[in-house]
Amino acid sequence: MADTDPDELERRIARTRAELAQTVDAIADRVSPRRVAERTVTDVKSRAGHFVASVGDALGVAPRSVAHHDDPERAWEEERPDLGPVLIGVGAVLVVGAAIVLWRRGRRQRA
Q1: What parts of the sequence cross the membrane (predicted)?
Q2: At 66, phi and psi to the nearest 5?
């Protein structure tokens, strides 16, 4: 008859309510626009860091960390990388991508 003991039932209800409140708080925290934005910014920063590192590796350049008090011009002390070909390549990819998008839109509108 322990299941029908009113004090035990009240304790179980209180424990279940507390667990449910924690679960609801965790869900609300996870889906809040502020948290989603924070996670997105963190993810974008991480991906950008990986991209910059891979571009640096492709160019054979090893960047060093720059402290806030350092002169930004001294970030590449050994030799400034030649970014011209990389920027031209990125621009060409963007132009080709835009042309493809415009071409598809034109075909879709005619259909």
Answers
A1: 83-103
A2: -115, 120
Average pLDDT along the chain, 111 residues, taken 10 residues at a time = 78 94 91 88 87 78 58 59 82 93 85 67
CA distance 38 to 36: 5
- Which residue has tokens 């409140």? 21
pLDDT for the residue 74: 61
Left if phi > 0, otherwise alpha if psi is -120 to 50, otherwise beta: which for 67? beta
Q: Which of 68, 66, 50 is nearest to 58 (CA)?
A: 50
Q: How far apart are CA 50 and CA 54, in angstroms?
A: 6
Amino acid at 58: A
Contacts of residue 3, Cβ cutoff 8 Å, sequence gap at least 6: 9
- Separation of alpha carbons 30 and 25, rounded Å: 9
